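Supplementary Text 2. Reproducibility record for the structural model of the 50-residue chain.

All settings were left at their defaults, and a single model was retained for analysis rather than an ensemble. We include the record here because the model underlies the residue-level annotations in Supplementary Table 4.
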Amino acid sequence: MAKKAVATFQTGNVGRNHSKCIKMVKSPKTGAYIFQEEIVENEKINTYFK
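Retained model, structure tokens:
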């Protein structure tokens, strides 16, 4: 039987320091609302939404 190799990409809390934020923004061309998604560090979430 072959051994199963398991890869871990997270070391410690590296993956938990970021969050996916979704912001609704009005398009300057059409005037319709669009959703803007971005991955932001947890400390910078409040500045992202301002």
